[in-house]
TrEMBL record:
Coiled coil: none annotated. FAD binds at residues 10-12. One of its GO terms (molecular function) is damaged DNA binding. Belongs to the DNA photolyase class-1 family. The keyword Protease does not apply. It comes from Bombycilla garrulus (Bohemian waxwing). The gene is Crydash_1. Its cofactor is FAD. This is CRYD protein. GO terms for biological process: photoreactive repair.
Length: 137
């Protein structure tokens, strides 16, 4: 058991504000036009969606990584999970074009059940693609 005098408070004003500004795309960044990709971050660090499920109970019925992109699910999958976009969970305010590569489409236009593409998607792109200004490769 911990006494109240031993509790650790993890709060750093500068780091927290800096991280929120960076996530919003208005922080200080040495690279031009870099955007924080929340979908990729979620897939990288919460692949099964457990953290989201803990803090967003409205999405608890969505299985696996699909929780990171509920708006991309079919109406049948949303219905099965008990989610109604615009009613029980809001539509996204913004959907960035960069997110699309993390939301693959199945034949017929519906998203892949795992909510992401395999690693072979950009196998022909070297590191220069991601760090060059010219993106029409």
């Amino acid at each position: 058991l911990c006494s109240p005098s031993v509790l650790k408070v993890d709060y750093d004003v500068c780091s927290n504000y800096g991280n929120w500004l960076y996530s919003a795309g208005i922080g200080n960044d040495p690279r031009d036009n870099r955007k924080f990709n929340m979908i990729k971050q979620g897939l990288d660090y919460d692949g099964n969606g457990d953290y989201v499920r803990l803090w967003v109970p409205e999405l608890q019925g969505i299985k696996g990584a699909d929780i990171h992109t509920p708006w991309a699910l079919s109406s049948a999958a949303l219905s099965q999970a008990g989610v109604t976009l615009g009613e029980t969970y809001p539509w996204p305010v913004v959907t960035a074009p960069e997110w699309s590569r993390h939301i693959p489409q199945r034949p017929g236009g519906s998203p892949h059940p795992r909510g992401r593409r395999g690693p072979a998607q950009h196998k022909d792109r070297g590191i220069d693609f991601y760090f060059s200004r010219k993106k029409d490769v």
